[in-house]
Amino acid sequence: MLFRLFLFIISTLHWLVSYQVLAYSEIPKNIYAEASDIIFSLEKVDEAYQAKKTAVFSASAELGFLYLTGNTHSRDFKTGVNFRFEQGLWSNSLNANLLVKKTEVENEISPGEVVKNFNTTEQKWKVEAKTKYFINSITQNYIYGDISYEEDRFSGFDSQSSISSGWGRRWYETKMTSIFADIGPGFKRDVEQKATDINHENKDMNSQDSIILQAQITLIKKLTQYIRFEQFAGIKQAIKQGNNSVYEANSSLTSRLIESLQLKISFNATYNSIVKDELENLNTETSILLVYNF
Asked: Which of these CATH numbers, 3.60.140.10, 2.60.40.10, 2.102.10.10, 2.40.160.40, describes 55-293?
């Protein structure tokens, strides 16, 4: 109690000094903290000082579907689920998503006879789990663990998986903005897709194991009461020269439609430093999804 009272007195004195300086100077107002910001800071300190003992659980589901006709016939389907659980100094999250795209192609089975079929031209799914443990209830530092697994049918890899652990920090936080960043060593395995020989027989798959340095940063910015912007950037840098490294960036804009329903527009870019000659290093994805919060 005395500690919180001391913080309140110090913050109040700081505000009063800022107010007096403002009254006798011509410096614009917006460089000083407003009362609401000071109250928010005091609330954050109080929340940190008394770490939450009650568990907080949240979940959301995403769904997007696109059907094209005319010159191009295709069907795109994307879905995902996100879970978050917080209690005390622990923060855990689990994210999973699936993307399937089918495009209509024409196959000539005999002269003058053409059959149209929908062939899968893109199919991938990914699961990622992350846990954070804040070192204590006052500091912003935390220890994290991260594990992910992805299968992308048309990326040249049968699967890509990684695990890492290290140190992170909540670098900045206000009512409208939060910035998290972490870094640590890890392990990554890339499994190439099966190749076929001239007799159309499957060859053994090749796998590449790498020691990596993983770094991630996340920015969350509330633009208005109903609109939120998120920016994520991450790298999985292979230590050994000649091994594949992965770079990823994701931008999203989410707007609340009603109490539990949101519209989400996102753009994702993934770059693999080493791929097969016939494949592109950079893959991008733009999606529009409806998000339901439980």
From this structure: 2.40.160.40
The tokens for 157 are 């890899």
Structure tokens at 231: 């920016």
Q: Are 291 and 254 in contact (CB under 8 A)?
A: yes
Q: Kind and range of the H or E element at 36?
A: helix 35-49
Q: Please name the residue that has the structure tokens 């940190």.
A: 48
Query: Using one digit for the tens of pLDDT, what is the confidence trace for 134-185?
Result: 997 777 899 999 999 999 877 788 899 999 999 999 999 899 999 999 999 9
Residue 30 DSSP label: G
The whole-angstrom separation of Cα 139 and Cα 128 is: 26
242: left (phi over 0), alpha (psi -120 to 50) or beta: left
